[in-house]
Amino acid sequence: MEIISESEEKAGQYVQTLLEKVVYHDIPKVFPIGNEDLLMRILKIIAANPGMLSDYESLSKDLGISRATLSNYFFYLEESFLIIKLYNFSANLLSSEKKMKRFYLSSTSFYAALNNGMDEPKIVENLVAANTDAKHFWRTPQKYEVDVILESNGKITPIEVKYRNSIPSKDLKNLARFAEKFGVSTAFAITKDSFGKDEFELRDGKKLNIILVPAWSYLLEIPKKN
């Protein structure tokens, strides 16, 4: 809260200093870090690719480190509350734990400090994942995907981030595929400024109601996390 009244430039400098302190000083005090610069590099890779899949094998080769070391570094960043991890959704929670994972920044305030440019759709996807306290996404071997899957009191809600105002029905088909597989009747598509509704008739004869809502409106309705 102490940076609210500061200028954008000073706020950015504050966040940059905070990240450097955590990566170069705080984390090495707790975990056996052999290369702090590499830890910062991994954080920047996540910032440039929010929602990146946990392809440890290829990334470890690119970075010139072992798969085990890379996995540990991701764990250190997560334990330090710099990134969050989402599991691939499955009706079997134990199965979810074993499947691929996605990573996001824990706060989009880190984004500008770690990137040279701004990609609004990526930032909004990260914002939705972090601020809904999401734990799951969905991706099949056929690469059908839904960005965020929320669970509350036994209710499953799929959310697809489409940060634009013109969204053809074909871009929402993965929500329908998810609904058919898991018996969902309502889903959300996060837009830029547009409100609306779309309806899909599913193959089992049931219907899926897709609520189109701007990111700013949807996020305002989310109960604040403690």
How far apart the termini lie comes to: 14 Å
Give the low-pLDDT segments: 1-5
Outline type: globular
Structure classification:
alpha/beta
Q: Count of DSSP E strands?
A: 9
Query: How is the largest sheet built, in terms of strand order?
Result: 1-3-2-4-5-6-7-9-8
Q: Briefly note the CATH topology name of the largest domain.
A: Arc Repressor Mutant, subunit A
Strand content: 15-25%
CATH class of the largest domain: Mainly Alpha
Instruction: Work out the helix count.
Output: 9
Task: Indicate the radius of gyration in whole angstroms.
Answer: 19 Å
Tally of domains:
2
Mean pLDDT: 88
Describe what you observe in this structure.
By secondary structure, this protein is an alpha/beta fold. It folds into two domains: 8-118, Arc Repressor Mutant, subunit A, CATH 1.10.10.10; 136-221, no CATH class. The chain has nine helices and nine strands. The protein has helices at 8-30, 36-48, 56-63, 67-79, 93-98, 111-114, 120-131, 173-182, 215-221; strands spanning 52-53, 83-88, 101-105, 136-139, 145-152, 155-161, 186-191, 196-201, 207-214. The protein has a nine-stranded mixed sheet, with helices on both faces. Helix 1 packs across helix 2 and helix 3 (56-63) crosses helix 4.
